Amino acid sequence: MTTQDIAAAMERVEAVLRRRPDHGLHDDAPATARWQGGTRIVASHPGGAQVPTDMPTELGGTGDQVSPGWLFRAGLASCLSTCIAMNAAAQGIGLATLEVVAGSRSDTRGLLGLADADGSPVSAASQDVQMRVSLTAPGVAPERLRELVAYSYQHSPVPSALLAATPIALQVDVG
After folding, report:
1. Are residues 37 and 87 in the same domain?
2. Roughly how many angstroms between the first and final C-alpha of the chain, as a whole number?
3. Domain range for residue 36?
4. Are residues 100 and 132 in the same domain?
5. 120: number of CA atoms within 13 Å, CB side?
6. Same domain (yes/no): 130, 140
7. What digits encode the pLDDT tens for the residues 62-118?
8. Order of strands across the sheet with 50-53?
């Protein structure tokens, strides 16, 4: 799609949602993860797309697929990139380049349920999450690009879910 196509699509959706705000809340497409044996999992989208994951060899996996943690970082980077591209189009900014790198640090002890030296549990959560955005847009002032990124970050669903510590309802079916 061209920048104009994206901007027009966003304008149409915004017009509908201004008239019918109730149409904004919707169920997102679920991700279904099925165990394939060992530590290999295949995550599937209802539309048919599939993403295999596996753990590194040091944790019993084959190491030949991305890990679930990497998918988390990919989701952060992809979501913010998408929001920046959409908002740039809406503002008439012609991006020449855009790259978002999401990184983090993790303590494997948390995954294994181990405690710290003082006996407190080690968190399995990613720590020190970082995102670096690099972009260019000919003829656009750097401050305008920084504002575009800041606005996009505030309205990007995946980073927002992390920042808000969105609660998770866990249901277990055994049988």
Report:
1. no
2. 46
3. 31-66
4. yes
5. 2
6. yes
7. 999 999 999 999 999 999 999 999 999 999 999 999 999 999 999 999 999 999 999
8. 32-37, 40-44, 50-53
